[in-house]
Design goal:
44% helix; Glutaredoxin; transmembrane
Length: 213
């Protein structure tokens, strides 16, 4: 009787030890998996942070680098008076000067028809980039540029038939003619001048202005 009791106790003890061993293995597996998951999340987080940091560094570098072929006008000599009469601008499209008291909506607005210069200049004063094109611009480029503008607050786009270049980008006191929608100067110009340092009135509205066609 005592022998059977001892055997039963021994089996129970073996079972208890086996259960403890299984629990230890489960804990080790759980901890290991958790460590791998955490390490993966940390690694992904560091990768994302590094990628975002690289993007910001690239944008900062683009903002400092000169835009090849860019024309610049002295911002201090560009008038900023609100007028109701016609204005003759010395450049086409205009990059600054006296303008209408109402701005063109420039919250990624793409206009299919020509817009008034005086209203567009007011948009530039608020820090917008104005993309313009004439009949020589390829339809594919016009479509690509329109898509970019639609995704970019403080930008607008419209046709200007009598401008010298097929595709031109303007900001307050700044202008460049580019070869195509894929010209790297397009992104550089946007990065540098959308609400850029040249903006006379940073943060001013680009909505609730004049809406064209």
């Amino acid at each position: 009787m005592a022998s059977r009791t001892n055997d039963r106790r021994a089996r129970i003890e073996q079972m208890r030890k086996a259960e403890q061993a299984r629990e230890r293995r489960s804990r080790i597996i759980t901890i290991s998996i958790s460590a791998v998951v955490v390490a993966g999340l940390v690694g992904f987080g560091l990768f994302a942070l590094n990628k975002e940091s690289d993007k910001k560094d690239q944008e900062a570098a683009a903002a400092k680098a000169p835009v090849t072929g860019e024309k610049t006008w002295d911002a201090k000599k560009l008038g900023r008076t609100h007028v109701t009469k016609a204005v003759t601008y010395p450049m086409k499209p205009p990059v600054g000067g006296d303008h209408d008291q109402a701005w063109m909506n420039c919250n990624g607005d793409v206009y299919k028809e020509a817009i008034p210069d005086r209203n567009a200049v007011h948009s530039l004063e608020h820090g917008a980039v104005w993309v313009t094109y004439n009949d020589k611009a390829p339809a594919g480029d016009v479509t690509k540029l329109g898509e970019k503008v639609k995704k970019t607050p403080y930008s607008l786009m419209s046709p200007v038939k009598d401008q010298s270049g097929a595709i031109m980008l303007s900001a307050w006191g700044k202008q460049v003619t580019v070869d195509s929608a894929d010209d790297p100067r397009v992104d550089q110009f946007f990065t540098k001048y959308v609400q850029g340092a040249q903006t006379p009135e940073p943060g001013a509205a680009c909505t609730n202005g004049v809406a064209g066609e």
